[in-house]
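ESCALATION

Customer reports they have been waiting on this structure for their group meeting. Please prioritize. Original submission:
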Amino acid sequence: MDRCSIGEAAKKLGVSISTLRRWEKEGRLVAERTSKGHRRYRLDQLMRVESSDASKRITLGYARVSSHDQKDDLKRQKELLQLFCAQRAWSFEIIEDLGSGMNYRKKGLIELLNRLLSGEIERLVLTHKDHLLRFGE
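Update from on-call: job pushed to the front of the queue and completed.
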């Protein structure tokens, strides 16, 4: 039976290595260990986790612009996110926001954070990392 490393398993499932370690602690995955202690996951087990997890969790796209006069850019971001997710056959939703990257109280950002913390989000997709938040200088 084929086995793969933790890095290969994370890539296949589209999650981080730390997520796989957490799933192992929760009993969702069982890793076999090599003689040197490296984790190896059976591919058939990963496929079961992938199919059961995929039905519960979605991909969340987040699009943000700073002002109303950037509506065309917001539309372009949403279209890019939708295309990116659809090409990968991910179940997804897009949250859009209007406001400064320095404003931590935006309605969409608060929704995004609450949904991430609830565990219902499998992955977050952005067009640019600074569209999520910016930090003061």
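Sent to customer with the following note: The CA atoms of residues 46 and 52 lie 10 Å apart.
Escalation resolved.
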